[in-house]
Specification:
This protein is an alpha+beta fold. It has a 5-stranded antiparallel sheet with strand order 1-5-4-3-2. The protein is globular, with a radius of gyration of 13 Å.
Amino acid sequence: MWDELSEENEVEETYALSSMKTLEAAVDQVTSFMGMHPCERSHKIPENRSSHTLLLAGVFRSHTNVLVRARLALSDGVTLRIAVRSEDEELRQLVASSVG
């Protein structure tokens, strides 16, 4: 489904999640905060990883699909690079900016 929505339907932001000390905690928090469902078992993190990609999907009140690719990297805290795809420009901006 990700590829069905082209890059022109994408917005990307980067955030520092300084209070997160593990990738597992960051995945749980991002998933919970977004209120979206993990895809392709991406909420499971292989052992001994310093980076991970979380894929989320949801349908908002307007019956509009929203997809999220969250790339997480563990350093001093967790860096989150989030890409949001949706046909609704305002919705993808809202979702991408809601983290910060």
